[in-house]
Amino acid sequence: MVSITISTAAKPPPFARGFPLTIDVPNDATIADVKAAIAAKFPKFYSSRQKLSLKGDRTNLVEEKKLSDVFNGKTQGGELQVKDLGPQIQWRTVFMVEYAGPLVIHPLIYHFPRLWYGKDVEHSALQKYVYAFVLLHFIKRELETVFVHRFSNGTMPLVNIFKNSAHYHILSGLFLAYDVYRPAFSQSSSYVVGTFRNDPTFLWICAGIWAFAELSNLHNHLTLRWLRPAGTRTRAVPHGYGFTFLSCPNYFFETVGWVVISVMTGSLASWLFTVVAFVQMALWALKKHRNYKKEFGKSYPRGRKAIVPFIL
Q: Where are the transmembrane segments (predicted)?
């Protein structure tokens, strides 16, 4: 057994008073074992709520890392610091809730226009296509959350469910649905009648591009799933369709799908959601791109960009 001192990086939660403390763990202990030992002393301070790092260092230590590696083989007298991450919630739960918003909001506005606009709306082919695209997209996202995605972290801060849900429920839910299904886009609207927005060929071309983007996005997600064995944080260099040019082609194809809807409709609400979503995905993609290059070094393909081929 070895002894480790645990101090706090910030004020501990009220149910975990008593730091600094000393715990004894096996010689081959990992960071996960240390977290479990802390949770054994303070049951409400569960492992996923803890962030462990070296004293004076903010770098998060992954649970699989052995203490012998953290302290270069010398564990006696070693000191770690723990930070309270606050109440946590499952990533899968957050995704299910945020994607469910548009699946509820769009049908409510599409099928009950009198409640929102004060009159009935004879939906144009354009509105029908958009309605189908949105529902299929978020049904796909829900199914991927359940059957495809494997998360490197099991939980995230509870507050994220409100932030993430607001993004989807308001921007791609309420704003987009209210704008696109209103009378200005209806079957008799001058904005639609006699324009390309009512041209079956144009709508079918858009449907084809949208379907291509959605299926490509799904293919990328499946590729990432196959790289990570269940229950692990294993990371490997993704290859194949889309990954030849990009670190995050899934974000690129998702953007293409929303650009199609925005071009079809010309809706300001659609463009707002598309731009906001792209900016957020670009930030994630750039971070992942940097992490890939840092982790895999020269073995990572040099010609790849983060999210937009040859550009970004």
A: 256-286
Residue range(s) in the chain whose domain bears CATH number 3.10.20.90: 2-85
- The string of pLDDT tens digits covering residues 121-134 is 999 999 999 999 99
For 12, 23, 41, the CA distances from 45, given in Å and listed in that order, are: 10, 15, 9
Side-chain half-sphere CA neighbours of 1 within 13 A: 8
Would you state the structure tokens that stand for residue 306, as one six-digit string? 């983060």
Q: Shortest CA distance to 81 belongs to which of 13, 34, 24?
A: 34
**C-alpha to C-alpha distance for 222 and 268, rounded to whole angstroms:** 33
Q: What is the CATH number of domain 2-85?
A: 3.10.20.90
Convert the pLDDT of each residue in 60-91 to its tens digit: 888 888 888 888 766 566 889 999 988 899 88
pTM: 0.86
**Nearest Cα residue to 126 out of 58, 189, 60, 41:** 189
Write the CB contacts of 66 (distance below 8 Å, at least 6 apart in sequence).
28, 29, 30
**CA dist., res. 153 & res. 231, Å (int):** 10
Relative to beta strand 155-157, strand 88-90 is antiparallel
